[in-house]
Amino acid sequence: EIDQARRSAAERRERSTAASRAYQAFLDDIATPAFRQMATVLRAEGILFEVQTPSGAVRLVADRSRDDVIQLELDESQDPPQALLISTRNRGSRMIRTERAVKERAAIDKITEDDLIERLFDEIRPWLG
User: Fold this and answer.
1) pLDDT, tens digit (0-9, with 9 covering 90-100), for 22-42
2) Mean local confidence (pLDDT), 68-91
3) Which domain holds residue 7?
4) What is the 3-state secondary structure (H, E, C) of 89-122?
5) Using CA atoms, how far apart are residues 56 and 81, in angstroms rounded to an integer?
6) Complete DSSP assignment for the chain
7) Average pLDDT over residues 6-23
């Protein structure tokens, strides 16, 4: 039983390492360009968002309220690790926070640009009025 637990832990570490590599490629090749594209489209509609790229993430931050944020990050607490979109919005005195996988239970290397943009549109709707 101990050997099985060790093997299981080693396999989980391997999956986590592979997911981290896949996430970094996804972040560089798909997510960051998609977030920049979304900011450009929103700007054309008069909704101003800035793209920020902290280590291991990318985020859209509203110009009118720096607390209004949509961020993509890797959730390694799940198995397999998931790419999460985390939205934070201020509505009066309330802070609304949601966390959703970009694509439920999907390996990160199976998430497409269309998957990400579709989920981004879902998250941006509250700002569209």
Assistant:
1) 999 999 999 999 999 999 999
2) 92
3) 2-128
4) EEECCEEEEEEEECCCCCCHHHCCHHHHHHHHHH
5) 14
6) -HHHHHHHHHHHHHHHHHHHHHHHHHIIIIIHHHHHHHHHHHHHTT--EEEE--TT-EEEEESS-TT-EEEEEEETTSSS-EEEEEEEEEETTEEEEEEEESSTT--GGG--HHHHHHHHHHHHGGGG-
7) 89
Tokens for 17, please give them: 């390492």
Please compute the mean of the pLDDT values over residues 87-110 and round it to a whole number.
Answer: 91
Q: What mean pLDDT comes out for the span 44-64?
A: 94
Specify the number of domains making up the chain: 1
